[in-house]
Write a structure and sequence with these properties.
The complex is a heterodimer of chains A (about 200) and B (about 80).
Chain A (H helix, E strand, L loop, with lengths): L4 H23 L2 H17 L10 H21 L20 H5 L10 H8 L2 H10 L2 H12 L4 H8 L3 H25 L9
Helix pairs in contact in A: 1-2, 1-3, 2-3, 3-8, 6-9, 7-9, 8-9
Chain B lengths: L7 H12 L5 H13 L1 H18 L8 H12 L2
Helix pairs in contact in B: 1-2, 1-3, 2-3
The chains are: A mainly alpha (about 200), B mainly alpha (about 80).
Chain lengths: ~200, ~80
């Protein structure tokens, strides 16, 4: 039985803040984010028969939000629909790790370098590094780390296999750490290192 | 080393799923045994966990009143 309007409204309002937060990070613009949320909710109501059960509402609604974002962006780009080249299976390439960099033997850190690094990291650094991620990486970090989705929910939302969620998340976090490392270097946080 | 103990290389492959609470019980227990004996992997796990926590703190679930009103009005038209 399709979801009732009252239940639909209550489910939407319960996650509206999360929808808006994810939309802001996808569009990087408050006005566009609100439009994206509104368009997604309208599409969701139109597609309510595809909601198998109310317990799956969150992943279903975020899937529609993400699909709406992707299709709107393609339309805005006004060019043929071409999937971005997403390199998933470069298993030979080890993701960047701040921890490994901090523990290189030639660095002059003492005690607990990783904690010192984290303590110096500013919220703005994290915001910039997140915003700099390619969209297909940014969305998995947003869902896994900010919204605390399970891998299964991320797979449902993005319609990709769980194995792809794992590999994409590992690469996304590696790329995020690489950007954070660069930002830390630019801000002089690595000044005690010998390079 | 017990037959089901894992080494550092295997531990590193599991740390992200561990902090995401996505390991099956047997894998989690194997990793926890390793972490209790390996300071380097333990520190790495704590680093990844703290970084994840800092990212979680970026999440904002506040909705402007105007957005909420717009969405309520929209649903009213359905």
């Amino acid at each position: 039985m399709p979801i009732t309007k009252d239940l639909f409204e209550s489910e939407v309002l319960a996650i509206l803040g999360r929808l808006n937060g994810v939309a802001r990070r996808l569009t990087r613009n408050d006005a566009d984010a609100e439009d994206l949320v509104a368009e997604s909710i309208a599409r969701a109501w139109g597609a309510r028969d595809s909601l198998a059960q109310t317990s799956a509402f969150r992943a279903w609604m975020f899937r529609i939000l993400h699909n709406t974002f992707v299709s709107e962006r393609r339309r805005a780009m006004a060019r043929p629909q071409v999937e971005p080249l997403i390199e998933e299976d470069r298993g030979d390439q080890h993701p960047f790790s701040i921890f490994e960099r901090l523990h290189q033997p030639f660095l002059l850190w003492f005690d607990n370098p990783e904690q010192e690094f984290l303590d110096k990291l500013m919220r703005g650094d994290l915001e910039r590094a997140l915003a700099a991620l390619p969209e297909h990486y940014r969305i998995v970090v947003i869902l896994a780390d900010l919204e605390e989705f399970t891998y299964g929910e991320i797979a449902d939302t993005l319609q990709i296999p769980i194995g792809t969620v794992r590999s994409r998340l590992a690469r996304a976090r590696g790329t995020l750490q690489e950007t954070l490392w660069g930002l830390a270097r630019d801000r002089g946080l690595l000044a005690r290192t010998v390079l | 080393m017990a037959a089901n103990d894992i080494n550092c290389e295997e531990a590193l492959k599991r740390i992200l799923a561990f902090i995401d609470h996505e390991l099956a019980d047997a894998e989690r227990e194997g990793l926890e045994r390793h972490l209790s004996a390996c300071r380097s992997c333990f520190s790495r796990t704590e680093f990844e966990r703290h970084l994840k926590g800092k990212l979680r703190d970026l999440a904002s679930h506040d909705t402007p009143g105007t957005t909420r009103d717009r969405i309520k009005a929209l649903i009213n038209t359905f």
